[in-house]
Write a structure and sequence with these properties.
- By secondary structure, this protein is mainly β.
- The chain has 2 helices and 18 strands.
- The strands form 5 sheets. Strands 3, 4, 6, 7 and 8 form a 5-stranded antiparallel sheet that branches.
- 26% of the residues are buried.
- Receptor for IL22. Binds to IL22, prevents interaction with the functional IL-22R complex and blocks the activity of IL22 (in vitro). May play an important role as an IL22 antagonist in the regulation of inflammatory responses.
Length: 214
């Protein structure tokens, strides 16, 4: 019995955490410290905070992977959720490992906007597109993150002649098309942008650089 207890403890999943970007939400965990960890299989359940019964996630039932997609199961974005994971090896089952409480609207990370740049001889026009959520309208088009948040765009310009690391904020607001004027012909400029949610005081990562020479 003691050996079984040791095995139970050694395969119990560690660090069960939700990761979420634009409401694409996955549950991640680390293996226990069992040496045969590669033969361990995992089982995932989830529930809304306050519910008494746990739901099985069928696609993540007896899987070798250490990640489970719960995007569909966490689509009520204002609700708080829990996930939990248990492991099995050689007919022995670990206890469940519980995640922290996760509320998608409050905790999902928001991605940067898509940026395209068009240049003329002394200006750059920047076009921004909000990131998409995984959720769809009735007609099938994906709903953008601006449906869920009051998003601002922050646009930065980098003058490669001066310093490739130095980003200057040239615009913050809701416009999707921004014109940056009075630039120097013949100089290489790059533009990056972020999304910013004032209500949560949270910024996205920077978008990929879009560069142009005037």
């Amino acid at each position: 019995v003691l050996e079984n207890q040791d095995l139970q403890d050694s395969i119990k999943p560690q660090k069960v955490e939700f990761h979420s970007l634009n409401f694409n939400t996955t549950l991640h965990w680390q293996p226990g410290w069992a040496r045969e960890a590669r033969d361990v299989l995992y089982f995932v359940q989830y529930k809304v905070y306050g519910q008494s019964t746990w739901q099985n996630k069928d696609d993540c039932w007896g899987i070798p992977s250490r990640v489970c997609d719960l995007t569909h199961e966490t689509s009520d974005i204002q609700e708080p959720y829990y996930g939990r994971v248990r492991a099995t090896l050689a007919g022995v089952y670990s206890n469940w490992s519980l995640s922290c409480r996760f509320t998608p609207w409050r905790e999902t990370m928001i991605g940067p906007p898509m940026v395209t740049v068009v240049h003329s001889n002394k200006s750059i026009t920047v076009k921004l597109q909000a990131p998409h959520s995984p959720y769809k309208r009735k007609r099938g088009s994906k709903i953008t993150m601006t449906n869920y948040y009051d998003l601002l765009y922050q646009v930065f310009i980098i003058n490669n002649l001066l310093d490739e690391q130095h980003r200057v904020l040239v615009y913050e607001g809701k416009d999707k098309v921004i014109k940056i004027e009075d630039l120097r012909p013949g100089v290489s400029y790059c533009v990056v942008a972020k999304t910013y949610v004032p209500m949560l005081d949270r910024s996205s990562a920077y978008s990929s650089r879009q560069c142009t020479v005037l």
